[in-house]
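Reviewer 2 asked us to include a model.

Predict the structure of this chain.
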Amino acid sequence: MLHGILLIALFSCAAFYIGDMPFIQKLSLSPLIIGIILGMLYANSLRNQLPETWVPGILFCSKQLLRLGIILYGFRLTFQNIIEVGLPAIIIDAIIVTVTIYGGIYVGKFLKIDRGIALLTSVGSGICGAAAVLGAEATLKSKPYKTAVAVSTVVIFGTISMFLYPALYNHGIIDLTPEQMGIYTGSTLHEVAHVAGAGNSMGKEISDSAIIVKMIRVIMLVPVLLFISYSMSRAIAKIRRRVGIDSHNPNRSSKVAVPWFAFGFLAVIGFNSLNLLPEPFIDFINRLDTFLLTMAMTALGAETSIEKFKKAGLKPFILAAILFLWLLGGGYLLTKYLTPYLM
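Predicted model (structure tokens):
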């Protein structure tokens, strides 16, 4: 197992090194994204030469380290952040997350996309990009290639948004106040890195509020994961009754697989809100967390081959494009016409 873990750690170190290159920094590509790309390059080149005894280490990174990374992600947030942005941001975030996930699921059904890929893509678009996809993957226990496909859609359309939003705002095409633009950016862009990149191009006032609004979306990952787990248990119970299992007790449902790491994530936010730890230590934890999540993404990429991408087809990217247009247009209309009534 140790050999597999060290292999993924080595790739993750390379992802951080590449991420520090000026060209990559301009694109605001996080080490998580670079890690999954490196993992996929490995999966489609030298993967077959890997000793089988190393595989458990890779799986450990994609499962256990993933959950630990999600929990430690809570050190980036405090409940005070929510109070700072106020009611308008919270309500718009809630609408965006709900419509994006439900809409993505129904559009996925219409396009006849694999349900797991459709849900992962919708959660990634609606909440916080790759981190949300990882959280949902840990709950769904889906196959690694489905996670890789969903993350790819987040990378493509999130990067487009990161360059598009500042261009539209700076040229006056988007008619929003700086406060509204911060809400719009934070509530509709995919990754935290995308929000930071776009915000920095539009000024500190917009950037600061956009990142806080984005972090509120991150907190919404907890109820979403709980709902996904509950829905899965209901679906399993329905299937069991359909095939005759537990037919003597139709009211019995399958046990809900509670994603414990979601509660850990929420508990860490609560602890971080107390401001008991010094800032340098928090910064260290955040860097460590980024490394753990990078290892998880790299491990998922290492289990994803081109053949599996071909199996998924073009439809997931069509779904992601539809969600992107909803976030761009629907998010703008919500921000422009709803915030005046909430402020």
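The first helix runs from residue 2 to 19. The mean pLDDT is 83. We have added this to the supplementary material.
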